[in-house]
Specification:
The protein is α/β, with parallel strands linked by helices and about 1050 residues long. It starts with a helix and ends in a 6-residue tail after the last helix.
Length: about 1050
């Protein structure tokens, strides 16, 4: 499970609702109570009492405690701890005690206080565990306290305890939790007002007893359900300070780890997180997502008031989580990398055993009749109306008062996952919201390795922590300590000085000097002092160089100064003349897929054993798990290079997979877009014969397009994937160069494979393939007419979510965004004013690809990026906030064994997406490639435009508009044609419109990559279209 304290608490709240789902009961509290107790036992915790309620006269006190009606009672701890503390103070003071809470019948709040091992002047940090109802000892002994409990019940120093940089308070709260107790049930708290008032009164008493710490900075920290406690407690302190109610508390900030703060948003993120992490299938996702609207509606009713409607909301929303758990079986929902063994996810029983010892209780000053309650069912149930409240509502005021907030989340936690936390943080309305959303991601480095990804603006910081589950201080102790220290010191984020961007000493840049013709300028960086790098005068740099300098920090550098790389941010001036390969459509979008090519372009001297012409090919012998389903005896997989004619030294790499059905099936070519992205992305993540698993093995793809065709995947243009050259002169800048290279490739391919010359040929691809494919089809058609070489039996071409007519498609973005509730009417009106300027610039660009096209791209992309900025979506699938991770393709293809099997030269690196190729094609991007299509249609060559309905970047509406507006002899008939259902397995999988050789298909439940999102439907689509049956 997760952090004993906070995790249990949060999960009690979240998991008490892990009830068998059927219909909403009138009183779910009994079921919740049972579930909460089960969650406790999942951690191997077995408290003797549900809550500590004792009559005062029955309690036997330690002689050091003389109970009274007020004040604070404390004693020094004298535990024997093995090892060195690392403290620099002569007398390291540890205290424990009780505070008699004001305005209660008889409540006593228990706490621990550990003075800093470094300096008394260090900040005071309070830790609150979640639940609600879980004891802070869980964190103290398993996460970030001064020491840990060994198996033999002795204590050892924690090398990464947070007391190394702060004076730490651990509090057992609400009353009834841990060693806290009362003599009356009336002291049980039911909402955050009661909880925060108790904590505020505790702090007042603490500072009276410890006046030497009043001037120290103060920070509130915690995890899990503390995502509720902490904002409320911080607001109460802020209010008390403003009202001058008592001692002024020097509150500087608050930090929440894997918390539950805005349940309405966080519950709705469960399905996306589960799907992105392969915990559920697409069909599971679709089914479970149907429960989200009811959850959202119920959460709104709950609001921030905590009424009885909140219990109903919790019940409805919890079903989303329960359904995911029922599918994942024994997954550890606090860390999805792990499994629960039997009924145990973690074993935290040592803390109960240790704190139950009489000698330990005596050392702590605990009354003999008080038992330690690790997690309290009673407290949990009492807070039931509080769970679904939105505690984000009070945070904006704190931010406006410049209180720092840190939200950190371990990436492998499911129950309070990073995605849900990221979404509420991004959605929160405050004066710095837009700047935070637009802020770049930076790397959080620990020991020169990336330990997380940071986003920051002003007082707000968000960190996604790598290799951690729900309990970050337990999973990543060194990183969490460094995080706390840097955050409190104000060094966790970028510090801007003198118009430049400076990185703190722990954020070290790797400088990469680039000297690519036309695409790099001089690299003008220098070290100011050890560990501190100043990037300046970026207008003299290629943006590609700027990107590479920050590659280790995953930072697209931003700054308001025009001289920095910020000039190429989504909201930069459209007059910029730097059109570089890492501008927004290129590297920003590539990085959303977690693709990080080692090289932008493979330039090597041609000393590789290779002939001057023709084709070099070898059979593939890659181990594949499972049965291919092929009906041929010897299924041939081939890979090779074609030496491109009329080039200096270009070699184009390809894969060829013979059909699993029959040799006579059509030959189908797949071209991935970018421009500059490798077709291996389509091969291994969409429609190829096999797919790459997380452990880098291959499994057969049951819906690979090679089941109905002989498929070819080509790394093109030159410099993409494994394709390479010995000269930069072979970089292509327009579709003529691309089309000529592909045509020559096909001529060589058919010379080597004459048995396939008579087969039908279809060209397919997606995204920027909407440029490549019409140009390539036109080149083949021209070659056939001119009888230039082997006649190629071209029958048709298919473009998936393509960019073909940019002028029309960019103008459609704002309408698509409005129809899908990505923007509000005011945003629509503002952004829509940009459309005429975009259309005018696109018309100037025309079909020629002049320098005016680069200006048009700058202007029109503003529409796209302003919408992405407002909506905070993955542009490839608007249902998701974070895009899918395709990095394992990079990892697999750069394995030496794989490169050897493919026949790739040793010194060639696989380049998933080339920034250099992208930059070279900059003046091609706004060209209208629709203009060549009518000639192809008039000659009976079939065209299929298919588009996933949830893609934004090349959305169905923009594609539909250019198809409808295209002038050809069948235009009027196509526009008038009826819309029909595309049926797969008896269900509507899309809507199609057809006349003559032209077919348009809108595919349901799919984003940018239709074969990935709807593999079965896409395979059936291809088969029926090639057979001429798609309109049936």
């Amino acid at each position: 499970m997760s952090s004993p304290l906070s995790i249990l608490s949060l999960f009690l709240s979240l998991f008490l609702f892990i009830i068998s789902s059927s219909s909403l009961t009138t009183n779910p509290s009994s079921s919740l109570r049972k579930t909460g107790h089960q969650l406790i036992t999942d951690l191997n915790l077995h408290p003797n009492n549900q809550v500590n309620i004792f009559k005062t006269h029955t309690v036997s006190f330690d002689e050091n405690f003389k109970d009274s009606e007020s004040s604070i009672f404390e004693k020094r701890l004298k535990f024997h701890v093995h090892g060195e503390s690392g403290a620099t103070v002569n007398d390291l003071a540890h205290h424990a005690g009780y505070y008699h809470l004001q305005h209660t019948v008889d409540a006593r709040m228990f706490y621990y206080f550990f003075e800093s091992r470094k300096a008394k002047a260090d900040p005071v940090v309070i830790w609150l565990t979640g639940g609600p109802g879980c004891s802070s000892e869980l964190a103290l002994f398993y996460e970030n306290g001064p020491f840990k409990i060994t198996n033999n019940m002795s204590l050892v120093w924690n090398d990464y305890g947070w007391d190394k940089v702060s004076n730490m308070l651990f509090v057992d709260q609400p009353t009834g939790t841990g060693f806290s107790y009362s003599s009356s049930n009336q002291d049980t708290r039911h909402d955050e007002t009661g909880v925060s008032n108790d904590l505020y009164n505790f702090l007042q008493a603490f500072y009276k007893a410890h006046p030497d710490y009043v001037d120290n900075d103060f920070y509130i920290t915690g995890e899990s359900y503390a995502g509720h406690y902490i904002p409320s407690f911080a607001s109460r302190i802020n209010q008390g300070n403003k009202n001058k109610e008592g001692i002024h508390i020097n509150l500087k900030g608050f930090a929440i780890g894997n918390g539950l703060t805005d349940p309405g948003i966080q519950y709705q993120a469960y399905t996306d997180y589960a799907l992105n992490n392969n915990l559920i299938s697409k069909s599971d996702y679709n089914q479970i997502s149907q429960k989200i609207p009811a959850c959202a509606q119920a959460t709104k009713k709950c609001g921030t008031t905590g009424t009885d409607t909140c219990q109903s909301a919790l019940y409805l929303c919890q079903q989303i989580f329960e359904d995911i758990l029922s599918i994942t079986n024994d997954i550890n929902y606090y860390d999805i990398r792990k499994k629960c063994e039997g009924s145990l996810c973690y074993d935290f029983s040592r803390v109960e055993s240790f704190l139950g010892q009489s000698s330990v209780k005596a050392a702590l000053g605990i009354p003999r009749n008080i038992d330690y309650v690790s997690c309290s069912d009673g407290v949990y149930e009492a807070m039931m109306n509080d769970w679904m409240r939105n505690l984000e509502a009070g945070i904006p005021e704190l931010l406006e008062d410049n209180m720092k907030m840190l939200i950190y989340a371990g990436e492998y936690d499911l129950i309070c996952n990073w995605l849900g936390n990221s979404r509420w943080v991004h959605a929160m309305s405050w004066s710095g919201q837009k700047e935070f959303v637009a802020a770049s991601n930076t790397s959080f480095l620990v020991d020169e390795k990336e330990a997380g990804v940071i986003k920051n603006h002003g007082p707000l910081t968000f960190i996604k922590v790598h290799n951690a589950g729900h309990m970050v201080p337990m999973d990543q102790p060194r990183a969490s300590l460094q995080m706390l220290e840097m955050w409190m010191a104000g060094k966790l984020s970028l510090v801007k000085k003198d118009g430049a961007i400076n990185f703190s000493t722990t954020l070290q840049l790797t400088l990469v000097l680039l000297q690519m013709q036309k695409f790099a300028h001089s690299w003008l960086c220098e070290n100011e002092k050890e560990g501190l790098v100043n990037i300046f005068d970026c207008q003299k740099l290629s943006i590609d160089a700027c990107l590479h300098a920050s590659q280790n920090t995953e930072l697209l550098m931003q700054d308001n100064n025009e001289s920095s790389c910020r000039s190429h941010s989504p909201f930069s001036s459209s007059t910029s003349q730097l059109h570089d390969p890492s501008s927004r459509t290129g590297y920003e979008l590539i990085k959303k897929l977690n693709l990080n090519p080692k090289l932008d372009f493979n330039i090597i001297k041609s000393n590789i054993s290779d002939s001057d012409s023709g084709i070099i090919e070898k059979p593939l012998k890659l181990p594949v798990v499972g049965n291919s389903g092929a009906s041929v005896h010897d299924l041939a997989h081939l890979a090779g290079y074609v030496r491109i004619k009329h080039s200096v030294g270009a070699r184009m790499f390809y894969y060829f997979f013979k059909s699993r059905n029959k040799k006579a099936d059509p030959v189908v070519i797949w071209l991935t877009g970018g421009p500059g992205c490798s077709s291996a992305i389509g091969l291994f993540d969409e429609n190829g014969p096999f797919q790459i698993t997380n452990n880098l093995t291959l499994v057969w793809n049951d819906h690979g397009w090679d089941k109905v065709s002989n498929t070819i995947y080509i790394d093109q243009p030159i410099g993409t994937g494994f394709s390479y050259s010995s000269s930069e002169k072979d970089i292509r800048h327009d579709e003529k160069g691309v089309g000529d290279d592909l045509y020559y490739f096909l001529q060589e391919f058919f010379k080597s494979h004459p048995d396939y010359v008579q087969n039908d040929l279809y060209i397919t691809g997606e995204s920027y393939g909407g440029h490549y494919i019409p140009a390539f089809a036109s080149r083949i058609n021209q070659g056939n007419k001119n009888k230039e070489g082997i006649h190629i039996n071209l029958k048709g071409f298919a473009i998936g979510n393509g960019l073909t007519e940019p002028g029309i498609q960019f103008a459609a973005d704002v309408d698509f965004a409005m129809e899908n509730d990505l923007i509000k009417r005011k945003d629509y009106n503002d952004i829509n004013k940009m459309v005429p300027k975009c259309e005018e610039a696109a018309n100037k660009c025309g079909t020629n690809g002049k320098s005016s096209c680069a200006d048009a791209l700058d202007i029109c992309e503003e529409i796209f990026y302003k919408i992405v900025y407002i909506s905070d979506i993955c542009p490839y699938d608007l249902r998701k906030q974070s895009c899918d991770d395709l990095s394992r393709i990079d990892e697999f293809l750069n394995l030496e064994t794989v490169k050897k099997a493919l026949g790739v030269p040793k010194d060639i690196h696989y380049s998933s997406c080339s920034g250099v190729v992208y930059g070279a094609m900059m003046e091609d991007m706004m060209r209208n490639l629709e203009v060549g299509i009518p000639v192809l249609l008039e000659e009976g060559i079939k065209m299929l435009i298919y588009v996933g309905e949830y893609d934004f970047i090349c959305n169905w509406l923009g594609n539909y508009r250019w198809v409808q507006g295209m002038k050809w002899s069948g235009q009027s008939d196509f526009v008038k044609s009826s819309t029909n259902q595309f049926i797969v397995d008896g269900k509507e999988a899309g809507l199609l419109k057809k006349h003559g050789p032209l077919t348009f298909l809108k595919v349901h439940d799919a984003g940018h990559m239709v074969p990935r999102d709807q593999p079965k439907a896409s395979l059936q689509m291809l088969k029926m279209w090639m057979e001429g049956k798609l309109n049936v």
